[in-house]
Predict the 3D structure of the following.
Amino acid sequence: MPSSKENSGMSMESANRFLEAVAYDEALRNKFEQVDSPEDFLRISEQLGYSFTTAELMALAKEQSMGVSVRRNTGVWKWLRGVKWV
């Protein structure tokens, strides 16, 4: 049985794969257009084969945006700001 640390690592890997996928796949982002809650967001993510918490996704988004001084109003970051996942 994997430890909670291993599970967390696997979840973070899943969150990372998710962010990479939605960054390049508009059709995937569109699947989340009608999301009304974090629970809906996670349910759809799980149906698509991803497994992470909103806290893990938030931590990863913060980590990946550290040191970014110019924010473009495009792509996955704009999408994350608009979808109800937190």
User: Anything to note?
Assistant: The first helix runs from residue 4 to 24. DSSP finds five helices and no strands in the chain. The CA atoms of residues 23 and 56 lie 17 Å apart.
